[in-house]
Amino acid sequence: MAVKTLHKFLLVAGFVSLIHAAYSAAQHRTYLRITEQTFSSLPFDIQLQAVISLIVLVYSILQVVGEFREIRAAVDLQAKSWETLSNIPSFYIFNHRGKSLSGNFENNVDASND
Predict the structure, then answer these.
(1) What is the pTM of this model?
(2) Where is the signal peptide, in residue numbers (predicted)?
(3) Is the separation of the CB atoms in 105 and 99 below 8 Å?
(4) Are 10 and 59 in contact (CB under 8 A)?
(5) What SS3 state is found at 82?
């Protein structure tokens, strides 16, 4: 439990650090405009902070999200029996009272009782 909390803290710290690096880059550009200097590149510390923040973010996101599933569908299908493979939910038909809530519903039962 404590490890999961640590990874969530790293995730928040990575986002805050990346936002700070972006703000520092914007401030550096503003400083260069005010002093009328040409922009060649960002200072090394801002670049380093952005790269380290991205690495921390990627690592913590991978740890917080959880287990990855196999890309190949055959791996998931190997554990299923033949009966469950032929079970196709897209072919289910539901006939229930819910359609009577529709405005276009015709009550055929009441018409036959008249």
Answers:
(1) 0.58
(2) 1-21
(3) yes
(4) yes
(5) helix
- What is the rounded CA–CA span in Å between residue 69 and residue 16? 30
Give the separation between CA 59 and CA 61, rounded to whole angstroms: 6
Domain boundaries, the chain: 1-65, 73-109
Q: What is the per-residue pLDDT across 7-63, written as a single tens digit (0 to 9) for each?
A: 899 999 999 999 999 999 999 999 999 999 998 889 999 999 999 999 999 999 988
Q: Could you identify the residue written with the tokens 């038909």?
A: 93
Helices then strands (H, E): number in the chain? Answer: 5, 0
Q: Are 71 and 25 in contact (CB under 8 A)?
A: no
In 3-state terms the chain splits into helix, strand, coil percentages (rounded to 5) of: 70, 0, 30
User: Torsion over CA of 33, 37, 40 and 45, rounded to 10 degrees?
Assistant: -70
Neighbours of 15 (CB within 10 A): 14
